[in-house]
Specification:
Blueprint: H1 3-6, H2 13-16, H3 22-33, H4 40-49, H5 55-60, H6 82-91, H7 99-111, H8 137-149, H9 156-170, E1 188-189, E2 195-196, H10 198-209, H11 218-231, H12 264-273, H13 283-291, E3 299-300, E4 319-320, H14 321-335
Antiparallel strand pairs: 1-2, 3-4
Helix pairs in contact: 3-4, 3-14, 6-7, 6-8, 8-9, 8-10, 9-11, 10-11, 10-12, 12-14
Length: about 325
């Protein structure tokens, strides 16, 4: 048995591979058993997942033109509007080849991109794109990661969002920051009192981590390096990143799906994706994650957006396959 499974109180792998929750099964086959995306078992599980909640509920509520709830840039309502639906479909492992997913990508690329290249936060119901002052690392990172995951890397608008993401971090060739949005280099954000935002940094790096290494321009690599240094400058188990208020308790609540809020597990996820899973500075955070498992090696959903999604992802007061999959994926990389 692998080291990460021996570190658990029980073995959740058979439970994660249960066919009753095909979306989790498809992702677990890939992340925990290294099955290829086009393997027969993964293909069957993914096809079943597209017909089952929570993915099916999201897609059932999509307008034929590609948006959810109302036309426009799609930031509201939280968390059923267009941008959230697309972000969550990516996190749930929806099939990029599905025509409804492709239509949603096309709609967002046509209505949510600003003139600066980044994806903008706007809840208007008209179809004008949001202004560049509305671009924040959290939304741009989440949407950019989804777009790349859904096979849109070759689209020039996705390329522009990558450029915005990297250059807004390093400041290289970046034309203007805004008092009402991204307010400076190094993840400075107006919502965070113009201080570097830990949540925004995680979302930004999750997006850039999906750019294949061979496709990363020099300034993209510098942005990733700067982001890694920032995230590793604090103990993720404490997460006392700069803030003009108090450190958010949400850091310590492991959840699924993930909107603009980040938790300690997502901090570990992105650092692991970028090759830092075994960094000793993450040891306390790994211990924290392990401490939250139950007697059977399962985790609960402590930040579930219950009642706010098209369909709840977990039943109340029960172990969560989604959070358990997240934890196991990180622990496998960290512990081997």
């Amino acid at each position: 048995m692998e080291a990460w499974r021996r570190a658990l109180n029980g073995d959740p792998l058979p439970w994660l591979l249960d066919e009753d929750v095909p979306a989790v099964r498809a992702l677990a086959l890939q992340r925990l058993l290294d099955e290829a995306e086009d393997s027969p078992r993964v293909r069957r599980a993914r096809a079943a997942a597209m017909k089952a909640d929570p993915i099916a509920a999201i897609l059932a509520n999509q307008h034929p033109e590609g948006w959810w709830v109302k036309p426009g840039p799609g930031y509201t309502p939280k968390y059923t509007g267009t941008v959230w639906s697309l972000i969550f479909l990516d996190q749930m492992g929806a099939d990029p080849r599905d025509r409804r997913v492709r239509r949603a990508c096309g709609y967002v690329l046509s209505h949510t991109v600003t003139t600066s290249g980044g994806f903008g936060i706007s809840g208007r119901s008209d179809e004008r794109p949001p202004p560049p002052s509305d671009v924040y690392h959290c939304l741009n990172g989440n949407l950019l990661r989804a777009m790349i995951g859904f096979g849109q890397l070759e689209d020039e608008r996705v390329g522009a969002a990558i450029e915005w993401q990297a250059r807004s971090i390093t400041g290289e060739g970046f034309d203007r920051y805004y008092a009402s949005g991204t307010s400076g280099p190094g993840f400075a954000c107006a919502v965070n009192g113009k201080l570097p935002c830990g949540w925004g940094a995680i979302k930004a790096l999750l997006a850039l981590a999906r750019v294949p290494p061979a496709r990363r321009a020099a300034h993209v690599r510098r942005a990733i390096a700067q982001g890694q240094e920032f995230l590793l400058s604090r103990d993720p188990a404490v997460a006392d990143y700069p803030t003009d208020t108090r450190v958010s308790s949400s850091w310590l609540r492991l959840g699924f799906p993930s909107g603009y809020v980040a938790d300690v597990l997502q901090n570990l996820e992105v650092l692991a994706e970028l090759g830092h899973a075994k960094d000793p500075r993450l040891s306390r955070a790994i211990d924290l994650v392990l401490s939250k498992q139950d007697a059977e090696g399962r985790w609960t959903n402590e930040y579930a957006y219950r009642g706010k999604l098209w369909a709840d992802v977990d039943a109340p007061r029960t172990p969560s396959r989604w959070v358990t999959l997240r934890a196991c994926t990180v622990l496998r990389r960290a512990l081997g």
